[in-house]
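user: At home tonight, take the chain set out below, taking as long as you need, and be ready to discuss the fold:
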Amino acid sequence: MVVIAGAAFDVSRTVNAREKLSYAIDAAALSVAADLSTSVMTNDEITEAIADSFRANLEGAEFLDEAIENLDFEVDSDNGTIRVSSSAMLDTYFIDIGGYGKSTLGPDMLAFGTSAQVTYSRFDVELALVVDVTGSMRNDMDTLREASDGLVDILIPEGTSENDSKVRISLVPYSQGVNLGSYADTVKGDAYGYSDGSDCVTERQDYNDGSDTYEVKYTDDAYDYYDETNPPPKATFYGGGSTNCSSDSEMIPLTSDRDTLVTAIAALDDNGGTAGQTGVVWGWNALSPNYASVWPSDSEPESYDNDDVLKFAIIMTDGDNNRYYEFIETETVCTRWRRGRCRRYAEVEVNEWDEEGESESYTNTSSTDQRALCEAMKDAGIEIFGVYFGTSNSSAGSRNMQSCASDGNYYQATSASELIAAFANIAKKIQQIYVSQ
């Protein structure tokens, strides 16, 4: 009976050890799968990551070294899975109670092992982070910076090599337009002398050349789509019309360089009114293959039909749209004044973009344009997350974000902590999406 009791104790120890090893393998497989979902890893890097996870979860276990020595893994890149396995042995300390247990019942050691298989993402990710830096965000810029940093930390973890990252993020801050920095001149038609020298870029409108109407306002057609004449008309390019873009909040095209993103996020600052449609325009263009020639080569978006790439946009606002832009070719001016009254009017050429202020509402021009652009983005295959930072779920800004968001992707944040949590939850949801597909 004593020997049988000792044998039962040894078996129990082995069962407990196997459970510990199983837990450690599950944790290691999940951890490595998360790493594989965001970056490319060598076999040595995977081995080291699993071993580090083992050490963290099996600290003090007598079989730790053997479990690390016996660990094995198999990565199936076609199906996006990683299988991790390991085994070890325990001495039968108690089975020999009475002096003849091993010789009678054996064995000297009990072996155990287990494995786990986890799915990881086979996809690359392109994400446009479109954030509101208007004047109403003045007291919440620290919160926006923290929320944006947290998202980058999840999708491009610290230590991730730029060359190995499978995620690229574009930062698109907007207010009364988007500060495109050195890229502004190109899309405004500087090659033909049309640029106004400002980094602030807004939107464009459909163009009628007298024979055809080019409906480009709600598309991602290239900025130089018009080739019927040389030079193309100024009205075919993007406009400025505003000097109220935030000078410090500059757009960053797609990049996996987290230092570049973190630096740009730290520089975010508020300024101006709300032209949310311009943020959507440039969030889309950051992801559009039609704008590959605008950005540096390592920021070029992949084609829409590349099945190995998933495209996402996060659009965030705390308010309601109140600005839009029109290209004015001519306007009526007074050419003769007499006794304080205009006596003669004439049409003169202007050929400039004009900023139009409007009352904040769900049906105004800027809100209507924003929603139309969101629908076109979704039709192009881009999944959108809409985030409203405010307490009223029925405001124009909230309703715009609800409309822009893909199914199940609307978030409302009523406090600083909720905005930070919303960005983190979206980052994790993006991970879940590209892991599960």
Remarks:
- The chain has a mean pLDDT of 91.
